[in-house]
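Subject: design request, 337 residues
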């Protein structure tokens, strides 16, 4: 029994769990069909599967899982384990937070993005009409499991790059030393990801969430790169060519650092550092004028907006950010063009 399974077994015993539900997507189920065999010998376990991909972060899939929980006669003592990437953590957390007004859950992240972001902090939700995380709750997992970096060796390059986008974000908002280490990378493989990097990102997020658990102001810095990033995700989903969340965030970091330099909030040298890192690892698309206008429209639907204004994380430099900076829409479009 590996360390992660042993820790989960210990936590479930401590909480006297009598019924366990494991939610996974089809890809993870196929890769790890026997991962929980030892655990299920002790705890009656029901496995529920959703299709892989961000399209499963939907009300339809949430309702399907609620129906399966009801059919299995799961009561409020059921424990839900979300086994997979960011989509599964977001969807499973939302289902747990709402089923019978809330049941206990934990996340077992299998992707870099989930390890450092989706599985931590207690935000979960679903998308509505291609608008990211439009409906959701704040609900903390019962406990956090140790990250098993061996999962990363089954990730396709696209998913590893997706997680790296969020890794960049944490370096920019809270760890200049980590950013310097990331700058030295010429390419990215699972072997390049250091446990200390994952621990640092989780530590940065914990500290911010502790000060602002309900996302009232300070926690907004965790959305660095996301105003543009979510708009890019929504646009590509609408066009039928979905892009990974962290890749969109990486592009968002590029555009937001450009934007901050444009309005004189960020030194051009720091904006250029961000842009160089993004361009070294990601394809930066050329958007048509129609796509630029649609991106701006999606940005106006962002959940951080207030009083009809689009809000960004204010980046003054690597490691120096603050929440809520308003910028005129024409400038938002200009930096994409």
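Subject: RE: design request

Done. Sequence follows.
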């Amino acid at each position: 029994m590996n360390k992660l399974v042993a820790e989960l077994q210990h936590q479930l015993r401590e909480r006297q769990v009598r019924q366990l539900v494991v939610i996974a997507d089809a890809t993870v189920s196929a890769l790890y069909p026997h991962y929980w065999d030892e655990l299920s010998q002790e705890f009656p376990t029901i496995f529920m599967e959703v299709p892989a991909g961000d399209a499963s972060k939907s009300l339809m899939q949430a309702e399907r899982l609620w129906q399966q929980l009801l059919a299995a006669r799961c009561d409020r003592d059921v424990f839900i384990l979300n086994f997979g990437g960011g989509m599964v953590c977001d969807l499973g957390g939302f289902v747990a937070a709402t089923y019978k007004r809330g049941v206990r859950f934990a996340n077992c992240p299998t992707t870099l993005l989930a390890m450092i972001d989706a599985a931590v902090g207690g935000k979960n939700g679903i998308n509505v009409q291609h608008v990211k995380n439009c409906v959701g709750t704040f609900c903390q997992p019962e406990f956090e499991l140790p990250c098993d970096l061996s999962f990363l060796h089954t990730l396709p390059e696209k998913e590893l790059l997706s997680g790296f986008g969020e890794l960049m974000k944490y370096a920019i908002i809270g760890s200049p030393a980590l950013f310097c280490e990331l700058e030295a990378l010429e390419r990215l493989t699972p072997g390049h990801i250091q446990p200390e990097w994952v621990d640092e990102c989780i530590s940065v997020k914990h500290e911010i969430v502790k000060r602002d658990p309900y996302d009232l102001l300070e926690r907004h810095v965790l959305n660095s790169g996301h105003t543009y990033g979510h708009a890019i995700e929504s646009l590509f989903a609408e066009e039928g060519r979905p892009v990974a969340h962290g890749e969109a965030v990486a592009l968002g970091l590029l555009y937001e650092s450009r934007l901050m330099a444009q309005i004189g909030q960020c030194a051009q040298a720091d904006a250029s550092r961000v842009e160089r890192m993004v361009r070294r690892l990601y394809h930066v698309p050329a958007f048509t004028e129609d796509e630029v206008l649609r991106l701006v429209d999606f940005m106006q639907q962002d959940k951080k907006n207030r009083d009809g204004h689009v809000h960004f994380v204010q980046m003054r430099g690597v490691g120096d950010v603050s929440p809520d900076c308003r910028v005129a829409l024409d400038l938002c479009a200009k930096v994409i063009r």
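The first helix runs from residue 3 to 14.
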